[in-house]
Write a structure and sequence with these properties.
The structure is a homotetramer of 341-residue chains.
Chain A: E1 2-3, H1 14-23, H2 35-48, E2 54-58, H3 61-72, E3 77-82, H4 86-89, H5 94-97, E4 102-105, H6 114-126, E5 135-142, H7 153-166, E6 170-173, H8 177-181, H9 190-195, E7 199-203, E8 213-217, H10 226-232, H11 241-250, H12 255-276, E9 280-281, E10 289-295, H13 296-303, E11 306-307, E12 309-315, E13 318-324, H14 331-340
Helix pairs in contact in A: 1-11, 2-11, 6-7, 12-14
């Protein structure tokens, strides 16, 4: 059976596995103080052109969002996010669990428009009752967004400009960062993205790793005692090597970008197939996730032969579903899907 | 200068003050175990026709909402509220501080429509990814709402019916309950309201008390060890008498309702004045808060002579402001305002 | 029946009540922005010789401790306290509810010894694993302590010296501050105490008020947006006047100290009675709380005629109980107790 | 250089690695719904003789403790633990972060004595002021303890008996469970341990896995929606296979116990070496961690040639250090250490 449910169907990219195997019996320091974690940090700094950044490895995306946001915000502050943002909808309230409100603003194609952000901040600061309200303390966006869409460089700069005007850190959730940067539509590079925010993370789990995300505080602005905060949140691995070795591999010989590019090629092929076959796309996604509107009956038929994900109800008779490609998707699978459709 | 800023401008209704004076030197048990608190509870039970309810006195509205909601919800649950609800906007994130998401739904005139609630619940339970989402754990509405509007009995029953279908407790914030029940538009009584929810509170602070709200768990459904939870949240008064004596007075000889009715009469007078003078109302509020759209210039002029509250920006040249009446509003003040306008 | 259960048996000092009555119908701004709150703050600043302090009024002691401690600590920090401290034992876990560990150190007569504090801090900072531990972020002591005992000026200075060496704010819980300062054994004044800490509170509830505590950040060091944090914790009163008027009265004509002195005189009388009658004291308390070891049988007899509080088990046959005096205790009552014994 | 710093120096047991390699390109469901996770659960149920238990895989020990404890406790409850317990000291306050107090009781050789537990509970329930205190909601012990010591079956039964009398769940932290069960001193088996508690976890990270702990709710008593709580705490892996495959291997052909037994043999050898060379042991640990008191000068010399961990200050001239063995320790290394000493 064909499977396009997600970008985390397979285990780990073979090169990472090889590196894990080779280093397996080395005795290394725990809790991230090993040499592979150091190496990985150096390579990431170089890749980002951020020589004086602070880098931490965490295990998964929700954990990363919770710890970074909770670490940055003051207790009376909340985080501004699109109402479709991952933290708004699909992290089981982990930001609220940490005591902070997600200040949801309406999205367009998964993105926060600069004008919407500005309006939100102006309204707050114009409100004489704001002492009784949650203060906006940072802005959260995703690259790519939940809908697979991308901010242009200009859009990102506009948002970051507003953030700086209001003294708010900008945080970019890069769970699928590679797939964003390698998209044909992307008009910015990793170093350019790093310059346009205060903290972001480079997603590993969905881009070839078994688990792991690399948080980059772009200008040595990690919260004080951040490692203790990671421990307190239950995010510190005794065998920190697991994360270090993976990112060391991903940032050697451009692997992270190569495998991301492959996924994008497969996604473009997939999109072509859907268009060719007359399917309606829910959004025109330039990245590895493709959203298609299926008639419910058709959906049930298709489900017998190919895996995909439920995304949401479209109307009584139609459903939005997601097909995802990844570093591991084979061209052959896409072609077989084409036949199926 | 005239003052219509709020319904908590004056101290306390004279009858309450008198009762505080008379009982002042009695030696009473602490932490709410005094006889006046007991008396007050009995009187409230009778007024609500809820002989087997659990009643607790708390100090203010935000505290009440936080403790009740946090006490009822499981940790993975959130509370459904209108996006203009007090807990959504004006309690400084106290629900999120307690770890819970406010699941905001769009309002109409400050109210949650039954269809909107139903749609929200159906969508959640139809979502195959709901394990990654915040579970709806209860529903919060206000009577009257933030806009001074009222649910009809039918509307309330429809909402409560849905709540029961989904096993969700319904909680009514009654910060201004008296002003709601005494409105000409109200088509339900206190016992009827009590029958239509699982927990509600009878607001004291804004209806003649110095401070204090009476929480009624309508069918002995208070969370276990609720008193300890109140303590843990910093809400337990050593001199619980302060709350008991006030509610004992408010529920003696119908005082709570008498003073509420007076406020409504004053509000109707006030609304008439605005209409007579050609002012545009923001909503047609049947309770003690009246919302008027003022030209900004006019607003600045008026502000020299009369106090009112900022409510929100209407457009570039207009602002929504609030005029509130209370148990203490004098007819004379409304007439003087009329002259002013 | 005689009553010595606590120092919060009666309502409120008559002068406060009178002030509440007189100002009752004045229309005042809400949320602490009224003129009486301002007046009270000015008077407290003068009494403390702290012209540039930040002062906030809160409702009760547990709330005050929770909000002050949570406001000061970083999220990875805990508060050092005696293992018998009020926050350690009798506040239902409100500090932990706010996310912080109470780092308990052994007490001697309710006090933290400077050497014990120093040892605790040295041990922590010598521990190479401290990144995995809760950082000490502030020190909490009470004046008087849970056992009614007092720090000498020298002891307090020693503790504050250590706090400053380690960069830790010192916070003094003054729920019964007046009774401490007016004790014959007290060798420091209010301004001297204020100089020896970073924040403290002046207890109202147990010293003549209906409710209310005045927090003094001694050198304009209140956490940013502290008012919003108070709101978020459910501690902000709409009718802030209730607290302002009370403290305005307490700090007019030395009332706070006069009524505290009276309680101390009554406590000394009481202690004399116990000694005269051959009762064993649990500690030699120089303040308004007296702790006596009673044979269980005797305790049950006595309980028929006089109220007192359970404090703890002494041994199989004996119990420690507490007798408290207050501003309201009459000499006559102590003499009647003498007869009883 | 020789290394005995910890039991997490190497990567992962080769058989697990092999299993990861073999299954790597299989497309599997995410979030723990894969077949290897299912297989692993079945094998664990059999090994524990707990056919109707609930099993969850989590990433590390602190996370496991936080989520299990927070999932079980009511908000007004705390967890009883030894004052040297891992959650008391070395988890950066993660339990308090989740809102709960660790109710610390004095330990003897790392263990809670049944009498101490009973006394603690009797005192609490005899206290008339307990409404103002944190309720004991569960009991936490470790097997082996922080000092490597073991509860006897009788001791464990006594503790569990008290827990059942008071209606408190008993939770056993088994971070090093294998090393405990394989000790010569152990007088209970895995099924016997499972019968003596309500929930425990089988530590993977320190017993051969890269990461991962298996939580066993022994009688289908997992908290409702526990998976959503895991997500909310940031503990849910997209590639749940990583944990499933590891535990599938560990519970195939008795691997978990075999490798634990090896570590114990190495530890016994190590202990013999220390004794032979006249070193003083801090405790007589029957498991894989050995605690030795070293003169500081000697310690510095030794540190040039062999790695070990700081445990604590003994006196001015001596330090307690820890030597740990694991599944990966070679006999040769112990013999070389012997020569060194």
């Amino acid at each position: 059976m064909l499977s396009f449910e997600s970008d985390y169907l397979e285990g780990v990219h073979p090169k990472i596995l090889e590196h894990l195997v080779h280093t397996n019996l080395e005795k290394l320091s725990g809790y991230g103080d090993d040499e592979y974690s150091e190496l990985a940090k150096e390579k990431i700094k170089r890749a980002c052109h951020c020589p004086s950044s602070d880098i931490y490895f965490l295990v998964n995306g929700t954990q990363t969002n919770q710890i970074v946001i909770d670490g940055i915000l003051e207790q009376y502050e909340g985080v501004i996010a699109a109402d479709t943002g991952h933290i708004s909808v699909h992290e089981a309230g982990s930001i609220e669990y940490a005591g902070h409100k997600v200040l949801e603003v309406p999205q367009i194609a998964g993105k926060i428009k600069a004008e919407v952000l500005l309006e939100c901040l102006q309204t707050f600061f114009a409100d004489v009752n704001r002492e009784h309200m949650v203060y906006p303390g940072m802005v959260y966006i995703s690259y790519p967004t939940e809908y697979g869409t991308l901010y242009t460089k200009k859009e990102l700069e506009a948002i970051y400009g507003i953030c700086k005007d209001y003294g708010l850190p900008l945080y970019i959730d890069g769970a699928r960062l590679g797939y964003g940067l390698m998209s044909a539509q992307a008009d910015l590079t990793l170093p350019e993205l790093a310059k346009c925010c205060d903290v972001f993370y480079i997603g590993g789990t969905k881009v070839g790793a078994l688990c792991g995300e690399a948080v980059v505080f772009t200008h040595k602005n990690a919260p004080k005692h951040f490692k203790t905060m990671i421990k307190q949140h239950g995010g510190l691995l005794a065998k920190g090597r697991l994360l270090g070795i993976q990112f060391d591999t991903l940032f050697t010989d451009n692997l992270y970008f190569e495998i991301s590019r492959h996924a994008i090629e497969m996604a473009e092929l997939l999109k072509g197939v859907f268009r060719e076959k007359g399917y309606e796309l829910y959004v025109d996604s330039p990245t590895n996730q493709q959203f298609v509107i299926l008639e419910n009956e058709k959906m049930e038929q298709l489900r017998q032969h190919v895996g995909f994900s439920y995304w949401g109800r479209w109307d009584e008779n139609h459903t939005v579903v997601r097909f995802a490609t990844s570093w591991a998707t084979r061209k052959d699978d896409v072609l077989r899907l084409r036949e199926l459709l």
